[in-house]
């Protein structure tokens, strides 16, 4: 399970079956990148629908374990989940391809928006609100599916409820980390008799040496980039440092990156506050991870090269951390003495997802009975008609444009 062979990087291209796996990872993640609207929590709903329910690349419990891990790590949690699933499916190249596929569509759109910022008015587009209603349906579907498996029974449901209440009452960047940690402790106490997990990540192809290398590189860059920036005074190094440091310090989801990036942009005088806010609005309207906001900012600073550098820099810490942690997380989750910890964490993940269904997704989307009816209809399409997520996205956008 924990292969440390260096040839794994080349083998993905030399074996026809592995090339097919990589193509499958690319095409699946690209479609998700083009259709996953609604922000990081909604992305988890899309991922669950595609990777767990439809393709069965990962089971419910492993998916929740991976979500819990990514919630603990700084960085874009939904993108890290996609990276982790790519690694499980096709090794390190699968992780890279899954990230590129999920990220590329919104990067291209936001670069284009950076060049059209003073001529485009998005306020007249009803389809934007339609996509918010799609996010309500997607997250509700994910809560229903994961809750029935991971928060069943009085104890697990109570942990999920406590997590939900805590996240809603204390809305700070660290609350999700604290809630998952507390749920793990509660699970360790309450679920001592649970059976260990066995072999759920059989296709996991990243070994300990790769993990240690990634974790070491994360620390080295975090320390070295500010020093290099100070010594050199080079603006490109300053851009890399600002975006890398921001990506290294974000806990609690993609939205937290916005105030950190605003501080960096304003202090360095790279753009006006008006241009920054306009880009933030555009980022809410495109599919894919919120961290692709960096593409817009980089494009305003130094055109397309600036966008490429900014995107790579802001995503790199999260990529290194999830690849570095996964080999050790996999061993941890198979330990019989610590399975109760995972059960508690999994229930907490359901509660956190349930909280997000209310705030910000429900509160920012459902303001009238008519909007509730539309969202409920989209939920029926997902839950009972088994419609593909992209179909639901198209229907939601069309209904929004026509009726809202």
UniProtKB/TrEMBL annotation:
GO terms for cellular component: plasma membrane. Pfam families: Chromate_transp. Keywords: Cell membrane, Membrane, Transmembrane, Transmembrane helix. The chain crosses the membrane at residues 92-118, 124-143, 174-191, 212-231, 307-329, 341-358, 364-385. One of its GO terms (molecular function) is chromate transmembrane transporter activity. The keyword Cytoplasm does not apply. Its main location: membrane. It is a multi-pass membrane protein. The keyword Cell membrane applies. It is found in: Cell membrane. Belongs to the chromate ion transporter (CHR) (TC 2.A.51) family. This is Chromate transporter.
